[in-house]
Amino acid sequence: MKNFNTWRLILDGPADAFTNMATDVALVECVSRPVLRLYAWHPWAISLGFHQSLKAIDRQRCRQEGIDVVRRPTGGRAVLHAEEITYSVVVPSDHPWYQLGVQEVYRQI
Questions:
Q1: DSSP secondary structure string for all residues of 21-70
Q2: What's the pTM value of the predicted model, to 2 decimals?
Q3: 97 class by beta-carbon count within 10 Å (0-12 exposed, 13-18 middle, 19+ buried)
Q4: 3-class SS at 105?
Q5: Strand 8-15 relative to strand 35-41: parallel, antiparallel, unpaired?
Q6: Which end of the chain is more exposed for a tag (fewer CB within 10 A), N or C?
């Protein structure tokens, strides 16, 4: 069994929404050990859940306000990313967390 006690920590500065989501997708595609990534958003952005309709937001208003709109590779509802620090956790498919539900993984984190 693999040792998953060693994590990769990525401390990214602010990036646009498209770069942030592309980075998360790239991490998922090449993860070999657990990753914790901390990052911020500039400009502000709204990220939509994977299955959420674009009709859920006013894209014209977002453009006028300089707010990027991007789709997350995960589920959930729209999130406004302003002045917070966001984290992503990525684990390989053979990690014990991979088989758990989202709520249990949140609890363990």
A1: HHHHHHHHHH-SS-EEEEEEESS-EEEE-TT--GGGS-HHHHHHHT-EEE
A2: 0.88
A3: middle
A4: helix
A5: parallel
A6: N
| Choices 3.30.930.10, 1.10.3720.10, 3.40.50.11540, 3.30.230.10: CATH for 8-108 | 3.30.930.10
Residue type at 81 in one-letter notation: H
Q: Which of 26, 13, 21, 35 is nearest to 92 (CA)?
A: 35
The Cα–Cα gap between 59 and 61 comes to: 5
State both tokens at 35: 């990753």
